[in-house]
Specification:
Helices cover 31% and strands 28% of the residues. The protein is α+β, with helices and mostly antiparallel strands and 268 residues long.
Amino acid sequence: MIRRTAVALGLALAGVVVVVFTLPGRDHSKPPAFQGWIEANLIFVGPDETGRVETLPVREGDWVKVSDPLFSVDADLQRADMQMQEAALENAKVAYNRAVTLLKSNAGPQKNVDDAEMALRTAEAHVNSSQTRLSRRKVASPVEGTIEQVYYRVGELVPAGRPVVAVLPPGNLKVRFYVGEAHLPAMKIGESVSIECDGCGNDIVAKISFIARSSEFTPPVIYSLEERHKLVYLIEALPDEPQRLRVGQPVTVTLAAPSSQVVQGASR
């Protein structure tokens, strides 16, 4: 009984060995492919100074051209400052004219004229600065593109320098993916790669625009047990038809197979 069991076990192990060694090998004739995603360089537009949003004529998804209005913030404080600076300018003009008149009648020194002229120029500069600050309370689009995100709504207080909207120009989309050290020599700036994704159609081409100089560990979201725990290099590529892609979309990046790999695969 024990002998029969040992024989059966030996046959089973032999079967396993046969199965393991008859598994098909990896097809090296296929060009290497990598998982990646679409990312965007957004243009963030916000006010120079703190204010409350008064108008917001755009919505997410709207297409805007250069100089189209995006939003405005309340300008009450700037208008009050403008009035104060204009009043100071009028006083400086009066003081300058008086100093010139006194100088002509020999009742005042040249120094008074020089001081009054300096004060007049300073007042004019303050008026120009106030006018600029007032005009910049209405913000127009600096680029052509899509309103990708609206961060503040009408009535909300916006801190200085915080974006109210984010604009995405079409050319600011890029493909990001990681490659291992073995495939790094095949990557060259300006080389073309093929992009595939669900619902994108075929024949999307991108050109490599960036190759990282230093390696990093595979990010945890990527993508398979086979590639995890390896050092990889970040690659970026600019698509020729960015309007066919969406931010955050997962894609498959395919490279052209080197001729040596094709010959090796064919000889197997």
